[in-house]
Structures
1.
Amino acid sequence: MNGVIARITLRQLVSRRRTLLLLLLGGVLVLVAGIFRLAGEEARALRFTAGLLNGLGAATLMPLVALLFGTGAIGAEIEDGTAVFLLAKPINRRTVVLTKLAVASACAIALTCAPMLVAGLLGAGGLGDGLVLGFVGAAAIGSVVYVAVFLALSLITSRALVFGLAYVLIWEGLLAGLFAGTRTLSVRQITLAFADAFADVPEEVFDAPLAVGTAAIVAAAVLLIATLIAIRRLRAFEIAGETA
Amino acid sequence: MSEQQAQHADTAAVELANVSRWYGNVVAVNDISFRLDGGVTGLLGPNGAGKSTLLHMIAGFLAPSSGSVTVAGAPSWRHPAMYRRIGLVPEHEAVYPFLSARQFAAANARLQGMDRAAADAAAARAIAMVELEDAADRAIGTYSKGMRQRAKVAAALVHDPSILLLDEPFNGMDPRQRLHMMSLLRGMAAEGRTILFSSHILEEVERLAERVLVIVAGRLAASGDFREIRRLMTDRPHTFTVRSSDDRALAAALLREPTIAGAALDGGLLTVRSTDFGAFSRAVSGVARRAQISLHELLPTDESLESVFSYLVRR
């Protein structure tokens, strides 16, 4: 970790206008939970909360937050040219990638888990037999894996945002629902497996299709491979001249 | 001299050997070789000539497709440790807009490995060198183009590098700032630093550079002192204006010389065109003496870098 890179990355990530949109999206999650609480339908509170944290939290808020922070951690600097100042320093590229990954992950966790926690507490009227903390903990793991994938993607292509969005919408949103085999490589499904393992709720309230053991192995492998790819790509990263 | 000292003495600050770089079918830099060791060198060429590609290769941001680029004896590509020696001012205007120039320079110093106190002192020194003290604590996002450029130069100088690479460094600077920056760079070169800057503005290069590298269509069209380059181009007439005690008689005498391509008297001023700078310079006094004519003034009229550059581009 490098403190200077961490501070610059943090200021860069939080000062972007997109961060405000992510805060608004988190606000929507809390708002929906608040409306449900006001409706007073206590009998189906757990099921509602599981659906909300899954559908709006793990499936929508988490990947979008991670996508913007993951692709922006290095990608934004490459895009606007400021990466030159960072790369023209006697600093190991591994340090640059790990610092950026840590800061972007922390930002993603904060903007995903905080609204999910508040929404979960509101919806379930408490911790909901571990459901709320289970989802929050799982979302933290999912955010780190997502950020690593998107950060690596931003060093592979200048259209990381488009490809990342396509992965979330097509692979995770469509294919993972249709073909069971594709779920293993879905960060969302990995997250749900962890949420299921952490929570102590009946199957009819919430049940994840992927086994937590498989999810843990895949999450660790994806995190490691994505980070190694990012380090490798940054070591050989070229900044073209005027004629390129 | 020990073997190690001899090796060190032979190591150039920057050395390119048969360097080419292509993007697909486009050749950006074509078989360029040169070495730099101290002083100010201007990298001159029109936009798209390959200047930035060349600078980016020296700065370690691009791998050469063939040939080798070394900085202080080590390959520049994939060698972050060399950035301790290099200060880089990129052409890109973008600088972290939320940082002040002081914070930006200090951050660069910290990234060079200085502790906080040393970084703050180095940042203050660099800010003073580029005369940006008054705006040093304002966010760079509020700066004019020239101020941003000076903030970038301060950040590049903060670790006192022995090699300075500047891509179009005078962009956006007003004439006073430009003169100050030129004087600063000259002073740094006098202290033994190697400075390479690119420009497409001939006047900048002519005023600052001791040595010129002219890049045209990816090739090194010429290198050396620009006046020397001009003289080497013997296949192009050189023009001189001459004032003497009898311009008409001198013109007639000069036209008998084989190196004189033409002479004209226009508005009382004798203009002579020669195909050989050296031969003409040596011959003119003898011709005048034999014709018993006094020479008052002899001036080359096309020694500007503009004329050299235009000629090279046309060739």
Note: Residues 9 and 73 of chain A are 6 Å apart (CA to CA).
2.
Amino acid sequence: MGGSESISSGEASQDHLYRDAANQYGSALERLARAYEADPEKRRDLIQEIHFQLWRSFQRFDARCSTRTWVYRVAHHVAASHVLRERRTFSNLVNLEELETLPDKTQGQFAADQRMNLERLSVLIQQLKPLDRQVIISYLEDMDAASIGEITGLSPANVAMRVHRIKNILAQRFREGGKYA
Amino acid sequence: MPDDPSANDPRTIWQNQPVESSAMTLETIRRKARELHAKTRRELLGNIAAPLAVIVFSGLGAAIFNNPMQRTAFALALAWALAGQYSLHRGMWSATLPGDAALTTGLEFYRREIERRRYLFRRVLQWSFGPVFLAIGALLLPIVTGGIAERGVFRNMIPFLTLLALWIGGFFVVRMRQQRELQREIDELNDIERDNRR
């Protein structure tokens, strides 16, 4: 692991895969980190950890799934571990079913403001347990049910049910622009 | 942008959020890999500090005290702590993902993480706290039994014993609550997997 002169062909391929993935999914990974960590300092650490683990994971990449699925799986796993380590308790995290019944913490504040809407969306996601978080992030990243299922391990019916719930929750919280629902 | 209907579309809001570029250079990544190895070594050393104290304390106790019961208890605590260190650090946990992590789905990974936490708690309880409690018990044994005969000494010990009991009680209450939460999570994952099979 010394200087660049001692890099083997395996490492070169690993580096190449990582560089491509970082270029293609860098922004998505930043958004994903935002969904898992509210604190900017800790978020920066989390992003770095995701990049690091992604680079390490490419040692074993065998194209059994698409690069996108691979990248999201690694990123979600790192972020979920981060949540479990940081929160230590699950009592303040909810699933989608419980979230439907919770009041919007930021309701009424600058609803039309784009930045505030992003804040509301982030707060909403950060309340969720890791598995539901994965579904909502994938949905927001425009993934189809099959891709969400591949990343999360949920059946198509289960994904469809959760996405339906997510749409309802988002429609309730962001009613004004309801085009997406 | 109140006239733009997409301004309130969560997917548009989400995808258009400003992001900082935090991509890492390969050199930075390699440095992080080296740091991780060093961190794991430091964690290993940090984790053996308390059991090492128990080992030294129990060894001294077994050598110094004359009471056969007390010496046996110290010797047991010593052996327990040594066996515990072997057992706990055989597969040293570090803050890295398992190699096959990317081959597992979110559901599998999450279950594995929860189960690992539950298992880790049991092992720490069994191998780390067990010897500590036994060593404390061995130390207190003659003071408490001898102190009962001498009421004054025992009365002086009451605040310390009360604090000790509260600490142990508090530790177990908190840990048991965490265990119940972990179990609830596992139950929820079982339900999701049952739904998946339908």
Note: Residues 151-197 of chain B form the longest helix (47 residues).
